[in-house]
């Protein structure tokens, strides 16, 4: 199993490759879609035990609906798919995206399809979780944040402020604070039980980081699939009806009915 130093170095190197400051918060979804043009992200409600999944090589997966995309035939080998459980909080969804990136970009596992369950504690999942935590908030980033804000004690208000700054989930933040020995094990257990959304609101922040997707976002998609459908339509390779059908399959009725 790769150690934490190595996993943090992967996170820092990826940020560097993407021209990102290793200390600052990042808009992960926007950055990933910009830097990985062959990636499609699908948001979909899953069971409580499943955080997400990824497909490294679509050619190795038997998905009948994808076989209908004739215009992509012969070009699927570079395509990557990440599916995220939209029933989980926005903070957890960001964490899941970073987690799946580890499987896609750094892991040596040769499986084409990886389903990530929250109860799975094998080395692969542990490594992906640690990497995700460091990508969202690097070791150096948290240390610098604590230093520049003169934090010697971490109250709930200060923890929420840091979570909002880094856009990291409450549980992931507590895990990191415990790892850096900024809080004790007893404090960590106590802070896990707070009503984090309510406490964020009474401290003047939005609770959007701590709640699941809205109804309109439960089924949604972003990335290459959308562009591929539109390009095929513009190149007269598919009919208007087929375009709408493919976009509806990807939960993008806003593009078929031209909602604004």
Automatic annotation (TrEMBL):
Cited InterPro entries: IrrE_HExxH, Rad_response_metalloprotease
Domain IrrE N-terminal-like: 79-177
Pfam families in alphabetical order: Peptidase_M78 (PF06114)
PANTHER family per the UniProt record, alphabetical: ANTITOXIN HIGA1 (PTHR43236), BLL0069 PROTEIN (PTHR43236:SF2)
Protein name: ImmA/IrrE family metallo-endopeptidase
């Amino acid at each position: 199993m790769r150690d934490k130093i190595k996993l943090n170095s992967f996170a820092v190197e990826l940020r560097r490759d993407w021209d990102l400051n290793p200390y600052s918060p990042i808009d992960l979804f926007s950055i990933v879609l910009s830097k990985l043009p062959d990636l499609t992200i699908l948001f979909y409600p899953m069971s409580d035990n499943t955080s997400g999944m990824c497909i490294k090589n679509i050619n190795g997966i038997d998905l009948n609906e994808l076989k209908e995309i004739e215009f992509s035939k012969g070009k699927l080998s570079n395509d990557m798919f990440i599916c995220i459980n939209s029933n989980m909080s926005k903070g957890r969804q960001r964490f899941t995206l970073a987690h799946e990136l580890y499987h896609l970009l750094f892991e040596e596992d040769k499986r084409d399809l990886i389903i990530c369950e929250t109860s799975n504690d094998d080395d692969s999942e542990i490594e992906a979780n640690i990497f995700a935590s460091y990508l969202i908030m690097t070791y150096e980033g948290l240390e610098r944040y604590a230093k520049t804000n003169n934090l010697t004690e971490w109250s709930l208000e200060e923890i929420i402020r840091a979570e909002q700054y880094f856009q990291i989930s409450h549980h992931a933040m507590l895990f990191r604070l415990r790892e850096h020995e900024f809080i004790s094990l007893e404090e960590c257990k106590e802070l896990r039980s707070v009503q984090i959304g309510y406490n964020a609101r009474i401290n003047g922040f939005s609770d959007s980081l701590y709640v699941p997707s809205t109804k309109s976002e439960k089924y949604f998609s972003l990335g290459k699939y959308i562009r591929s459908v539109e390009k095929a339509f513009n190149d007269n390779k598919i009919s208007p009806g087929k375009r709408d059908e493919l976009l509806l399959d990807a939960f993008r009725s806003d593009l078929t009915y031209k909602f604004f």
